[in-house]
Amino acid sequence: MNKVTLTGRITAKPELRHTGSNIPYTRFSIAVNRTFSNSNGERETDFFNVIAWRRQAENVCQYLDKGSLIGVEGRLQSGNYTDKDGNKRTSIDVVADNVEFLESKGQRQQQDMSSPYDYQEPAADNGVNLEEDPFADFGDNVSIDDNFLD
Predict the structure, then answer these.
(1) Fewer beta carbons within 10 Å, N or C terminal of the chain?
(2) Of all residues in the chain, what percent carry a pLDDT higher than 90?
(3) Which domain holds residue 99?
(4) pLDDT tens for residues 51-110?
(5) The domain that contains 84 carries what CATH number?
(6) 8 A C-beta contact, residue 57 and residue 24
(7) Considering the entire predicted model, what is its pTM?
(8) How far apart are CA 50 and CA 26, in angstroms?
């Protein structure tokens, strides 16, 4: 199984490109905060290269910018190339199957952009009001008798 899910911020404005057969694509990088702190109490950041194709690439380039918060679902793809000095290199990219825009343009403009890589995960809003939810204090397990379904 080859499946990747990432949430992070775009590090530079994505640019739309086209293959020789005119298929649109974009290659961009996202910064993803680690979920733990290092020995100095600081959260480190990982950077991942992402490739999006066709309409998805067009949407990314049209609507997203440096610092935009996105979710990416896709797969890892490795490749080999020779750099300008003749050294053989290996690259690992995330090929995006789905790119989710995780904030509106208005939310983006309100955010303090002192560092586009320092962000807090948005609080989950599952739409459940615990005061109105009749199962809120039900605990972790709910069992339904099979005869109930008949």
Answers:
(1) N
(2) 61
(3) 4-119
(4) 999 999 999 999 999 999 999 999 999 999 999 999 999 999 999 999 999 987 666 655
(5) 2.40.50.140
(6) yes
(7) 0.67
(8) 8
